[in-house]
Design goal:
Blueprint lengths: L1 H6 L1 H35 L6 H6 L4 H58 L14 H50 L6 H29 L6 E4 L1 H11 L1 H6 L3 E5 L7 E4 H17 L6 E9 L2 E8 L21 H6 L7 H11 L3 E6 L6 E8 L3
Parallel strand pairs: 2-4
Antiparallel strand pairs: 1-3, 4-5, 5-7, 6-7
Bound molecules: adenosine-5'-diphosphate and magnesium ion (MG).
Amino acid sequence: MIDFFRRHLGAKLFLSYLVVILVGAIVLGLATRFTVPEAFNSHMGLGLGAGQGMMQGNGAGRGAMSDLFQSFQASFNEALLLALLAAGVVAILVSLLLSRSVLAPVRVLTTASQRIADGRYGERVQPVGSDELGQLARSFNQMAEKLEQVEAMRRQLIGDVSHELRTPLTAIKGSMEGLMDGVLPATSETYQQIHQEADRLARLVDDLQELSRVEAGAYPLDIRSVAVSMLIQTTVKRFAAQTQSKEIELRSDLPAGLPSVLADQDRLAQVLTNLVGNAVQYTPKGGQVTIQVNRHGDEIHISVIDTGIGIPAEHIPHLFTRFYRVDKSRSRQAGGGSGIGLTIARHLVEAHGGRIWAESAGEGQGSTFTFALPIPK
Ligand SMILES: Nc1ncnc2c1ncn2[C@@H]1O[C@H](COP(=O)(O)OP(=O)(O)O)[C@@H](O)[C@H]1O
Ligand SMILES: [Mg+2]
């Protein structure tokens, strides 16, 4: 019985109405007991207190009056009982109606959330009204939408990753089969090709691991004061061999008196390495790459400018999305990665409270990648 009341909203509502009715009836009963005799007497024109009027009276007139009062009280009690019964019935009806109107949307939400738990993310409910239940329905829909997006992203990621893994694997398998069948000559060139593909696989796996780390924010930032010019000089040195072999001129353009920034030095170096690596990679022989630093108000802008292949305008908004490459086949031939580098860079810059963007006048016109970091006050 108690369990029934505990588990049904309608029963709880009814119980609360019943309590109100009972309290009302008790108050009414007490009030009549104590105030009605006096009022009765005064209305009957006796002008005496209740005790004197009724109880101590003698004589025929007084006796008749007392009978009258008693029958009045009996009929009053009867009426009170009837009113109680009527109120009880109304309480049942109202609690049924109210609980039904409250429970209907709750039931809809329960069913919908069970469907979502079963993986049907397209589930939505129709929000009715603007009360709390309507708000609940609306925020439920928002939650369902977010879940659906996350699920779509997860699917996309798995699709992309499998695709990225398949390409080098297919190449390795093809070469191995060629070797086994004697179609491919067992030269060092063949082995080098296979090694290159294996290398690409290893890099991809490393990138993916790094991406999942930065996307989850699961890495510590060792924030200290970092001298930007030092950072850039180190990066230039790191690329010396690569730029020399590709005959690319790598310069840095640093104004004097640059302020320091608060950042994780290794992470900033990672961003810069990504950008300079891309610039060197997508700039043909004989080109130039410049690292430029400027102060803009309370921000410091670090730009990597190249004279390379450039980027058509329609691709620019997507560059920082994972796996996005302007030209997949060309990027592959050019020894490019899998389109994760800029996504990692964006996450790292944003973790420092900065932003990153790309500019290019178009194909063959070179590109500029800039990230901005706040200057500490
Ligand atoms: N300096 C640049 N010049 C021209 N295109 C660039 C440059 N940097 C990046 N891109 C384009 O952006 C894409 C994504 O870059 P990134 O995330 O570093 O991936 P990838 O692994 O291909 O280098 C590249 O595939 C390339 O098409
Ligand atoms: Mg890259």
